[in-house]
Amino acid sequence: MKTMETEKYWEALTEVMDPEFPISVVDMGLIYDITKIGDDTIAVKMTYTSTGCGCMQWIENDIRERLLKEEGIRDVEIHVVWDPPWTVSNLSEKGKLKLKTWGVSS
Amino acid sequence: MANKKNDSLIVLAETIADNKFITGDRLVEIGISGPTLEASLSSIAMAQAELGHARLMYKWSNELQGLNASKMEVKEQTGKAFPALVNASNWLSLIAGLYANNQAVDLVIKAILKAEPPNLPTPFNKMIREQQEHLLYAKSWCKQLLRDRGAVPRVFKQHLEKAVAEVEQWLVKVEKDPQLQSEAIILNNSNLVKTFKSEIEQLTNFEEVQHV
């Protein structure tokens, strides 16, 4: 859920792209929640399009790296969940349009 | 969460994980030289997902044991994979193992979800959806092989019977496990074996059904 406090982190994650398509992890609908813990830690609750996604570590590293650039952030906790499962309905309108441009139906 | 109460559940999780791990491995090894290009491509795609399911189940097992699931590294199975699947060496034995194993896992996972055991995380929704596609694929290949020509139907049936027998033995153990029942993880009326047998019967008698 976006709050005043976490909005800038959601915005920051729009710069982290899915390695397979030039769509951000936010527009892919992979990010379920971002919360701030204490003064310097961010917890990200996220999922993947598939349990067999070969880019999990890559994406998590990118997310971590980007959020650590935010002022005062020293730690990023990433929690991967599978409920609710990702479906195409998780895609944002922007994400759907981009996929369409690339010839992928959603 | 790590205690004696979880022993049966850990064995169950590792059995599923090991079989998924081996399925992923076999799908790559055998699937790469599948009977058609489509079969090879599908095998590799399914292998990736089966390995993903294995990772999910090993992580679940680690969590049940109170281990740090994020530091998990899986290099080999724990020894609980079914021999028919481990020894699968051709397309017929691969499809037989893929179908029998996934059909059984589907029944067990759905039984756990149906039981809604309290205080037990059940992160299987995504896996179940993905597995449905593998089941559909394997089932369709089973039908094709059963109505093939020459020795194929007979040899495939032998592989299927072998795979089914091993999986059925496991289902009997799961269904009768006192710990799983007392913890309400598998309910008394889950009918795992009965449902599995009925699925296999429907699959192998499909010609008769079609002629009715």
Automatic annotation (TrEMBL), chain A:
InterPro entries named in the record: Fe-S_Maturation_MIP18, FSCA_dom_sf, MIP18-like
One Pfam family, short name: FeS_assembly_P
Domain of life: Bacteria
Domain MIP18 family-like: 10-80
Protein name: Metal-sulfur cluster assembly factor
Organism of provenance: Neobacillus rhizophilus
Lineage: Bacteria, Bacillati, Bacillota, Bacilli, Bacillales
TrEMBL record, chain B:
Superkingdom to which the source organism belongs: Bacteria
Segment forming the signal sequence: none
InterPro entries: Ferritin-like, Ferritin-like_SF, PaaA_PaaC
Pfam families assigned: PaaA_PaaC
An annotated GO BP: phenylacetate catabolic process
Name of the protein in question: Phenylacetate-CoA oxygenase subunit PaaI
Organism: Neobacillus rhizophilus
